[in-house]
């Protein structure tokens, strides 16, 4: 029996909602790490732990119908935009009930019905796709805003700079969100990005600012201004969110013992953890109640994912073409 | 029936697509005011406006990426890459995004993007302006790769590519742009991926596509004077490949020579040779032979006639196949 995922809705309007969303992302990732260790999730993941305030703060500034493109470290974006944690976890575990029926995996999860145009295994590759989608929306007379998430590594990809240019000359409703977590895999951004992130965007005439990416409310405030600008037809904006990933670049990192960060550096950033900061602003006891609810939700998601079957190899070449051409049927491939 | 050049047929085809579907857009370098360096989009911006025939900056990766986003939201972008070698900055977007999104989304989204690429040599250009990179795209699951050889196919196949819900890499044989042929704009075209028997014959099949179809027809004519009857198959599509069509021809002629401008090494001919050997082993009187470019960078204009497979090289292969 293939189980059905329960309906899911993730409000982001209130500070308590945003804390809950961050707790969802954090808990989802912690559980995913367990499932990687247990071998349920094959191949590993790029954990988002530490960066939750960015995904939640930005998505809180968006509305239904807005679109996002995401990255290799995309679980937070996908969940904050409202994807079902049940189906997301099933996707990571390679099950037919996953967002992409287990064929996209961690780096290619997408839910077009929610405006999630896809996580992406190629650094920076989602940016021009966001620009194109934004252009299509503007042409259709809709005031949709498209957010392109990317990391500091993408700042050095040519296609991102090409996209800055196209979005600026065509005044596209795009919000460029750079999650500067300090490292492109293991390369420190400090020595890799000449001239600085916001300066690059400004060189294209794009309004740009740096915000504290460990503070969800600060991210929301900055994103809201940029979104308003885009919605009004005034073109793209750029946000550099200074953040940090508490875990490694990838789950493989522990095994490889890559020593590119000091324990002091990691501990220093952990003191700025966005979750306790958000919890402190809530009524006493509220965070604990939220945590318990999320714990139950994620336990259900785990049960759901584990109870779901894997895809059948006989369908490996399905969906290759829209017109249904497939091997050994009609024209041979 | 109207007689027109391949360039004009492609232009008429684009015009028809722009007229019949408001979601069709043209994008590329110099495609608007200039009408394209080969004038394939001549006059289209004037008639359909700057919003639909768009001059883009020189940023192939950004252009194709933007086209993907437009397609995801309901448009049918037709991207012109100015010369074959210029597609490589966009290769990442084509291979990692355009080709894969449909399968990844389990058919819930469509990617109706056409990437038009003038390709091949013979116009006195140089490296990056004369190449035949079709195999590099045909190898990628999710893309359709086609090339017309005649004005009629140029007219029809381009409209079929634009109407197709899958990404199509549309290779235009640039040295044939100025060749004339009959175009019946009221005809019912054959399916996009069906090979076409360009000339019937009994003794050997020459399979080619794009610019080499004309060469093969000349070879067949020359061979006829020696009493040899060659069939010429215009493959039209390099992915998918119409193996049924090739098989039917080879079961009749029992000999096959595959011809393309692209290097022989791991070219389209290699896949065809392997498949036809599997399918027609007991029909074949000779090994499948291949004629194509050298496994070397495309040479400067002065020596490109040495590089391009011409009448002599194809006839030599025909002789070898018939001598088995």
TrEMBL record, chain A:
<keyword id="KW-0560">Oxidoreductase</keyword>
<dbReference type="InterPro" id="IPR029061">
    <property type="entry name" value="THDP-binding"/>
</dbReference>
<feature type="domain" description="Dehydrogenase E1 component">
    <location>
        <begin position="21"/>
        <end position="281"/>
    </location>
</feature>
<dbReference type="InterPro" id="IPR050642">
    <property type="entry name" value="PDH_E1_Alpha_Subunit"/>
</dbReference>
<dbReference type="InterPro" id="IPR001017">
    <property type="entry name" value="DH_E1"/>
</dbReference>
<keyword id="KW-0786">Thiamine pyrophosphate</keyword>
<protein>
    <submittedName>
        <fullName>Thiamine pyrophosphate-dependent dehydrogenase E1 component subunit alpha</fullName>
    </submittedName>
</protein>
<dbReference type="Pfam" id="PF00676">
    <property type="entry name" value="E1_dh"/>
</dbReference>
From TrEMBL, chain B:
<dbReference type="Pfam" id="PF02779">
    <property type="entry name" value="Transket_pyr"/>
</dbReference>
<protein>
    <submittedName>
        <fullName>Alpha-ketoacid dehydrogenase subunit beta</fullName>
        <ecNumber>1.2.4.-</ecNumber>
    </submittedName>
</protein>
<dbReference type="InterPro" id="IPR009014">
    <property type="entry name" value="Transketo_C/PFOR_II"/>
</dbReference>
<dbReference type="InterPro" id="IPR005475">
    <property type="entry name" value="Transketolase-like_Pyr-bd"/>
</dbReference>
<dbReference type="GO" id="GO:0016491">
    <property type="term" value="F:oxidoreductase activity"/>
</dbReference>
<dbReference type="InterPro" id="IPR033248">
    <property type="entry name" value="Transketolase_C"/>
</dbReference>
<keyword id="KW-0786">Thiamine pyrophosphate</keyword>
<dbReference type="Pfam" id="PF02780">
    <property type="entry name" value="Transketolase_C"/>
</dbReference>
<keyword id="KW-0560">Oxidoreductase</keyword>
<dbReference type="InterPro" id="IPR029061">
    <property type="entry name" value="THDP-binding"/>
</dbReference>
<feature type="domain" description="Transketolase-like pyrimidine-binding">
    <location>
        <begin position="4"/>
        <end position="179"/>
    </location>
</feature>
<dbReference type="GO" id="GO:0000287">
    <property type="term" value="F:magnesium ion binding"/>
</dbReference>
């Amino acid at each position: 029996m293939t189980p059905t995922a329960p309906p899911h809705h993730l409000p982001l309007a209130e500070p308590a909602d945003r804390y809950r969303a961050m707790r969802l992302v954090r808990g989802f990732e912690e559980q995913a790490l367990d499932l990687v260790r247990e071998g349920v999730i094959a191949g590993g993941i790029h954990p988002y732990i530490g960066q939750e305030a960015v995904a939640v703060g930005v998505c809180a500034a968006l509305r239904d119908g807005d679109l996002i493109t995401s990255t290799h470290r995309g679980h937070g974006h996908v969940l904050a935009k409202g994807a079902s944690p049940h189906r997301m976890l099933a996707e990571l575990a390679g099950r037919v009930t996953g967002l992409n029926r287990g064929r996209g995996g961690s780096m290619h999860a997408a839910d077009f019905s929610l405006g999630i145009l896809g996580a992406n295994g190629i650094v920076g590759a989602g940016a021009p796709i966001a620009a194109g989608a934004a252009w299509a929306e503007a042409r259709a007379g809709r005031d949709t805003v498209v957010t392109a998430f990317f990391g500091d590594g993408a700042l050095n990809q040519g296609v991102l700079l090409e996209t800055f240019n196209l979005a600026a000359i065509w005044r596209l409703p795009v919000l460029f969100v750079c999650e500067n977590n300090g490292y492109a895999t293991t390369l420190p951004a400090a020595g890799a990005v000449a001239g600085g992130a916001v300066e690059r965007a400004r060189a294209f005439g794009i309004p740009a600012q740096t915000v504290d990416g460990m503070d969800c409310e600060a991210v929301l405030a900055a994103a809201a201004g940029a979104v308003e600008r885009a919605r009004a037809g005034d073109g793209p904006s750029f946000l550099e969110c200074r953040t940090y990933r508490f875990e490694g670049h990838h789950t493989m990192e522990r095994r490889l013992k890559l020593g590119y960060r000091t324990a002091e550096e990691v501990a220093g950033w952990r003191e700025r953890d966005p979750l306790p900061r958000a919890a402190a602003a809530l009524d006493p006891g509220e965070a604990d109640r939220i945590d318990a609810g999320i714990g139950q939700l994620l336990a259900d998601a785990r049960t759901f994912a584990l109870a779901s079957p894997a895809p059948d190899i006989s369908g490996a070449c399905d969906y290759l073409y829209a017109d249904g051409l497939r091997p050994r049927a009609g024209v041979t491939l | 029936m109207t007689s027109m050049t391949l360039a004009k047929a492609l232009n008429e085809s684009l015009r028809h697509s722009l007229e019949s579907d408001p979601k069709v857009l043209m994008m590329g370098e110099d495609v608007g005011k200039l009408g394209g360096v080969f004038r394939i989009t001549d006059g289209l911006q004037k008639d359909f406006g700057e919003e639909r025939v768009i001059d883009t900056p020189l940023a192939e990766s950004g252009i194709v990426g933007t086209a993907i986003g437009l397609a995801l939201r309901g448009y049918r972008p037709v991207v012109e890459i100015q010369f074959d070698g210029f597609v490589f900055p966009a290769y990442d977007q084509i291979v990692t995004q355009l080709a894969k999104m449909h399968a990844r989304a389990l058919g819930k989204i469509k990617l109706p993007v056409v990437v038009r690429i003038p390709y091949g040599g013979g116009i006195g250009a140089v490296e990056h302006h004369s190449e035949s990179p079709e195999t590099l795209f045909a190898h990628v699951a999710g893309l359709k790769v086609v090339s017309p050889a005649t004005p009629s196919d140029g007219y029809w196949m381009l409209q079929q590519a634009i109407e197709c819900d899958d990404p199509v890499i549309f290779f235009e044989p640039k040295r044939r742009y100025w060749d004339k042929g009959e175009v019946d704009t009221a005809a019912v075209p054959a399916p996009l991926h069906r090979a076409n028997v360009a000339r019937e014959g009994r003794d050997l099949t020459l399979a080619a596509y794009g610019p080499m179809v004309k060469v093969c027809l000349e070879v067949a004519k020359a061979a006829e004077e020696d009493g040899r009857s060659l069939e010429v198959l215009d493959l039209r599509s390099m992915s998918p490949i119409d193996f049924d069509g090739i098989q039917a021809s080879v079961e009749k002629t029992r000999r096959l020579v595959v011809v393309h401008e692209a290097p022989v090494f791991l070219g389209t001919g290699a896949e065809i040779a392997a498949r036809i050997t599997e399918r027609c082993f007991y029909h074949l009187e000779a090994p499948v032979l291949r004629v194509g470019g050298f496994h070397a960078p495309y040479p400067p204009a002065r020596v490109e006639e040495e590089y391009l497979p011409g009448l002599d090289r194809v006839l030599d292969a025909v002789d070898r196949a018939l001598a088995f």
